[in-house]
Predict the 3D structure of the following.
Amino acid sequence: MEKESMQKNQRRVVGILIMTFMIFGITLIPTPAMGNTMNVSDADIKWTEGIKGGAIYFDKGEGTITGCDITVTEAVIPESIEGTLISAISERAFSDCVNLTKVSIPSGVEKMGHMPFENCENLENIIVSEANDYYSVLDNVLFNKNQTTLIKYSSGNQRNDYLIPNTVTDISAYAFYKSKHLKNVTIPAATYLINQCAFSACSSLENIKVDVENIRFSEENGVLFNADKTQLIQYPAARKDKEYSILSNVKYVWGGAFYSCKYLEKISIPASIINIGDEWGFGEFVGCQSLNTIEVDKANTEFASKDGVLMLKDEGSIICYPANKLNVEYTIFDNVTFIAPFAFKGNKNIVSLTLPETVTEIQNAAFSQCESLEKIIIPSTVVNIVDNAFEKCDAVTIYGKSQSYAETYAANNNIPFVVI
């Protein structure tokens, strides 16, 4: 029964109501992976002609651009390489090319994988050959040919305001992700699909407006919802409010909805909320560097808060320890069995942590970027810690029992360990 309860808690923490999103046509896409040569093999051709700052890589057998050096600044993709027509760009082929400012797509490309230009924060200029039958560009924004799908808004584009064309019915996952200068965006009446994290981490975004004739989506005070406001889709990252109370009829908070909201200090969650985040464990409040308190209505049946920390109602899992919570020392309360993905990520204040003997699992990036963390006591009850749980915690030492899982984990990950 205990194992079954723990598994149920885990599913509730990172679960999503799949049927709800199927109804709204939402495609679930994993959080962008780091590295832009994930699809590159040793057999791929390294191509530098027309490429500034590095090379792109080409699978001749598939006719596909598979990857790109992270140092590339401009990429004019040719029509063909060594006599083979370029017909596709693979998933995340240019991902994390933070220096990329310009890319030119030839006429033969008829397929692009998911998020081919993800985390290209300085990309300003996207060019598509007018002879291409599958893709087009308008004002440096990438679309399908008939401009019904908005694929990628160039993240480094200097404009502050953008009115999405009224032909657009579908906004792709991560389409505006990390757009640096965009302050205001307007969604037209025709749009009926908005995919995951479409407007997340836009560091200057203050307002999302929706045409009053749109039957699928709505907004209130610049915050994006579905039509009946039962789903909170996106809180703009640069809204300057220090406190925000989620509307009392909201049931679902989308993955990435509050990602990198830099001014928020306090969030209040109503009784109506039954799901927060998505099945990929995006880390709903990651990057909210001013956040110090999360409050939950006591009548909520799924979630609760204790000392400003978000957890499941039964206290079986910590979901979010706010990034600006000021405690230097913190003892996690009894009954917690599961430290959720990204739960403590980015907290710069915590120095010492003690886990109770009820904890059995520490999930993905749970304590990553806790730069001040020096000491964590992990009990022998813990039987699973994901490898990157302490990523960028350079000062941390793990304390625990001899021959425990924690000791093995520490040794495998080059983390100092002290027997207690």
In short: The first strand starts at residue 45 and ends at 47. The helical segments are 2-14, 18-23, 405-412. The chain has a mean pLDDT of 90. The chain has three helices and 38 strands.
